[in-house]
Amino acid sequence: MDVKVLSKIYEDNGAACISVLTDEKFFGGNIRDLQLVKENVSIPVLRKDFIIDEYQLLESKYHGADCVLLIVACLEEKKLRLLLQMCKKLNLQALVEVHTLDEMHIALRNEAYLIGINNRNLKTFEVDINTTTQLSKLKNGNINLLARVDLKTEKH
Fold first, then answer.
1. Judging by DSSP bridges, how do beta strands 114-118 and 144-148 pair with one another?
2. What is the DSSP string of 39-73?
3. Rounded to an integer, what distance in angstroms lies between the CA atom of residue 74 and that of residue 134?
4. pLDDT in tens, 59-80
5. Residues β-bridged to residue 47
6. CA distances from residue 87 to 44, 45, 65, 78, 112 in whole angstroms, order as listed
7. Model pTM score
8. Distance between CA 105 and CA 138 in Å, rounded?
């Protein structure tokens, strides 16, 4: 289905934000999809990719992203801090993804205020919803948490 049509359906049915996968190598997405979605909806658009350098933030802003995904497991703490600072300068929101206790501490130490808890272990690909239960206990202040969970039905 066309990304413009699909994004409009999401918006018309109450989506608060649309996540656009832009990684080409592993997931077949592309940055142009981000721009097409942004041009077609009025709600915030998140760039979901492996963001590892400042250029990608500039690229995200240029193509219309309101928010970017920063995965703690993919970044050294110093780089995460630098990217968070640059996000502020560019007026980009950062959804900081964590999966472990150590990653949660890193996110909090670097003043992430929108934290996504990934219930999927990226090494084993197993899903454990208790990850959110455990890590959410560390929440403090004005931190917003987003639990990222795979739901399955009896058929799937």
1. parallel
2. HH-SS-EEEES---SHHHHHHHHHTT-SEEEEEGG
3. 21
4. 999 999 999 999 999 999 999 9
5. 20, 68
6. 15, 15, 11, 14, 11
7. 0.90
8. 8
Q: How many CB atoms lie within 10 A of CB 34?
A: 27
pLDDT at residue 48 above 60?
yes
Return the ∠ at Cα 11 (arms to 70 and 62), rounded to 5°.
45
Q: Yes or no: say if 52 and 75 are a contact pair by the CB < 8 Å rule.
A: yes
Residue 156 has a pLDDT of 45
Residues, the chain, total? 156
Does 20 have pLDDT greater than 60?
Answer: yes
Residue 123 carries which side chain, given as an amino acid letter? Answer: K
Q: Report the run of H or E that residue 21 belongs to, with start and end.
A: strand 18-21
Q: In this structure, are residues 33 and 23 in contact, taking their beta carbons and an 8 Å threshold?
A: no
Half-sphere exposure of 125 (CA within 13 A, CB side): 0
Which strands form 18-21's sheet, in the order they lie side by side?
Answer: 18-21, 45-48, 67-71, 93-98, 114-118, 144-148
Mean residue pLDDT of the chain comes to 92
C-alpha–C-alpha distance, residues 153 and 156, integer Å: 5
- Tell me: pLDDT of 6 over 60: yes
pLDDT at 127 over 60: yes
